[in-house]
Inverse folding.
């Protein structure tokens, strides 16, 4: 068990290092610098600024310096918003983005699973048909289109919900819905197909032969086994929700990390790009680790570090 | 002899894209208290469908009990409500399925899988249920049952799992145990142990057993009576002695000739030629006619009704029927 943790930690760190390295060099490969858009600065000023941020040094030196400061958990200063460090920006943006991401994931997982189970239980019935039509729509409509549709419906045609900022729970409904529809649809479809498969298993027949009620059979015997594929997908879904928050935050003017991230790319604010990427990578790597832990909890045949049966 | 279960003229069909499969076409038999009745027959003849109908576990749709009755404790199981049926399943009538490797839920401990059955049907405390589970595992021959309760199915061998399945089925002391090919998936030595266990448990609990198999070797070891099934019908019923030493239906004889026997030296193994009829449109007459070396004209046209050869031997075959000649004359 311990050696598993060590191995796992090392592989997580290597993944993180690869992401950092790739992002670092790709970012610098994009033409332009943080100061090219400032038309009123002359070359001398630009050069001064570059040397102030060490941007005139060879790339590998900058890279080495960045890794070194990372070790002290210092993500550096923001070039464009010079009164803030990247740590500051993350500290302000992340709580909001996390709130959005967390609720989205929760809504998507809970409603997706319920929808999928309902569809599986009424296999080929009307509920199944409706749910799956809805799922296909949900998967094919991107979140920013969904956002527009929701705004049109619930803020313009029938103005019951606010559309912008992050002021109250009521403000959160539309962005969460817009972002959750896609993942929810994917989870619903996956749950349905895996539930149908599980319900046809011999051990479900055994459970029925014991005289258990349908509710017990579904929730105690079937759901847990049917959730394995869903859990597998959770890491990828979390990643897609993360990137989705960037777009949705922009549309709904939500003061989260997405705003800073999108701006930082446009402005080549290198430390912010790096800082956000590193932060989100860490979050995702931890998510994937949690998913692996969840496997072991759901299926006793899977023991972390050694797989059998 | 007390009858615990009476199946009368049971018809079961499946609606499929190709049409209606008439899987069970008028099955009648009784099960006596404390006996083991074996139902034998080729694959697809309707053994599993018959047994699952008794438990009302036929998947519906596509399956449906079309007509007939199944009498158990003054109730007709084809008519009772689903909640009432749930009270019977696992408590009064239990079932064991073929493959012990898949019959247990892989993500729940075997202890919980046994205990939930007890708690479903009996008002007992958690501790009492656990004790009952331990006793039951002990009875079916699982060593250190207390510790084993906490383990998952994948931690047991196939034979052990089948013992657990049997423990699970018997833990509420049912009157009837239906075992559908309980030893088919096991290797020969384990098979013998499990059959031994069945006999042992029947002695201790007096449970009546319906044993479904296509293995006549198994039948010879444990059955008191045998029902031979063919194309959705029971074509011959009799005591083990009658069926093995005095088989009357050509199909039964064919079955016996197709298995190796130690008692008849040098006897040739003869497989039954041909294949069973299509159950979408089963023949009006004897379904075995196309494969029967004694088939007569009447066999093709009219199904032979049951002839009672003795109190413990019945057969559906025109060869045994006094009226065959008369009927043929009348039809010409
Ligand atoms: N769900 C189903 N849908 C359609 N037909 C079915 C279904 N279940 C069973 N049948 C049909 O019913 C007939 C009897 O099947 P059954 O499973 O009872 O056979 P069996 O005697 O148990 O055979 P085996 O020895 O292979 O287990 C078969 O012809 C089969 O095709
Ligand atoms: S009824 Fe006719 S066809 Fe059927 S088994 Fe008897 S002799 Fe053969
Ligand atoms: Mg079968």
């Amino acid at each position: 068990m311990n050696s598993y943790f060590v191995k796992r930690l090392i592989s997580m760190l290597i993944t993180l290092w690869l992401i950092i390295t790739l992002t670092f060099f790709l970012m610098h490969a994009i033409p332009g610098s943080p100061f090219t858009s400032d038309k009123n600065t002359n070359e001398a000023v630009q050069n001064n600024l570059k040397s102030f941020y060490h941007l005139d040094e060879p790339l590998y030196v900058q890279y080495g310096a960045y890794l070194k400061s990372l070790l002290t958990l210092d993500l550096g200063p923001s070039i464009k918003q010079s009164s803030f460090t990247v740590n500051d920006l993350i500290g302000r943006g992340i709580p909001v983005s996390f709130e959005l991401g967390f609720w989205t994931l929760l809504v998507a997982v809970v409603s997706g699973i319920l929808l999928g189970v309902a569809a599986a239980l009424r296999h080929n019935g009307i509920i199944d048909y409706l749910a799956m039509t809805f799922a296909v729509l949900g998967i094919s409509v991107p979140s920013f289109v969904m956002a527009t549709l929701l705004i049109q419906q619930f803020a313009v045609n029938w103005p019951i919900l606010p559309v912008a900022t992050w002021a109250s729970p009521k403000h959160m409904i539309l962005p969460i819905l817009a972002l959750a529809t896609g993942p929810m649809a994917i989870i619903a479809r996956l749950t349905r197909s895996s539930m149908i498969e599980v319900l046809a298993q011999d051990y479900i027949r055994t459970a029925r032969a014991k005289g258990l009620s349908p509710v017990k059979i579904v929730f105690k015997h079937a759901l847990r086994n049917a959730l394995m594929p869903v859990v597998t997908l959770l890491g990828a879904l979390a990643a897609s929700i993360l990137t989705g928050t960037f777009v949705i935050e922009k549309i709904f003017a939500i003061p989260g990390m997405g705003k800073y991230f999108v701006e930082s790319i446009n402005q080549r604010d290198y430390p912010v790009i790096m800082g956000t990427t590193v932060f989100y990578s860490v979050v995702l790597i931890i998510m994937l680790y949690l998913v692996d832990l969840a496997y072991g909890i759901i299926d006793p045949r899977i023991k972390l570090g050694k797989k059998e049966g | 002899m007390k009858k615990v279960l009476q199946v009368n003229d049971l018809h079961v069909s499946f609606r499929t894209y190709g049409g209606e499969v008439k899987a069970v076409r008028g099955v009648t038999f009784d099960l006596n208290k404390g006996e083991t009745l074996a139902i034998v027959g080729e694959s697809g003849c309707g053994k599993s469908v018959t047994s699952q109908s008794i438990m009302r576990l036929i998947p519906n749709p596509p399956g449906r009990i079309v007509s007939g009755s199944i009498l158990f404790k003054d109730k007709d199981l084809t008519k009772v409500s689903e909640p009432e049926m749930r009270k019977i399943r696992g408590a009064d009538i239990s079932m064991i399925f073929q493959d012990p490797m898949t019959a247990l839920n892989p993500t729940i401990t075997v202890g919980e899988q046994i205990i939930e059955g007890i708690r479903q049907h009996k008002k007992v405390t958690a501790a009492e249920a656990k004790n009952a589970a331990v006793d039951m595992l002990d009875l079916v021959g699982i060593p250190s049952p207390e510790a084993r309760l906490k383990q998952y199915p994948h931690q047991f061998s196939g034979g052990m799992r089948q013992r657990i399945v049997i423990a699970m089925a018997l833990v509420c002391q049912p009157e009837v145990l239906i075992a559908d090919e309980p030893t088919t998936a096991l290797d020969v030595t384990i098979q013998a142990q499990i059959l031994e266990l069945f006999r042992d448990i029947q002695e201790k609990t007096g449970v009546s057993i319906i044993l479904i198999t296509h293995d006549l070797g198994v039948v010879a070891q444990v059955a008191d009576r045998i029902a031979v099934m063919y194309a959705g019908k029971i074509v011959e019923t009799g005591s083990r002695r009658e069926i093995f030493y005095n088989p009357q239906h050509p199909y039964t004889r064919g079955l016996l000739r197709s298995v190796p026997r130690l008692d008849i030296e040098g006897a040739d193994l003869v497989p039954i030629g041909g294949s069973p009829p299509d159950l979408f449109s089963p023949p009006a007459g004897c379904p075995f006619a196309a494969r029967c070396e004694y088939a007569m004209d009447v066999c093709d046209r009219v199904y032979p009704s049951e002839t009672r050869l003795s109190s413990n031997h019945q057969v559906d075959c025109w060869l045994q029927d006094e009226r065959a000649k008369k009927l043929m004359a009348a039809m010409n």
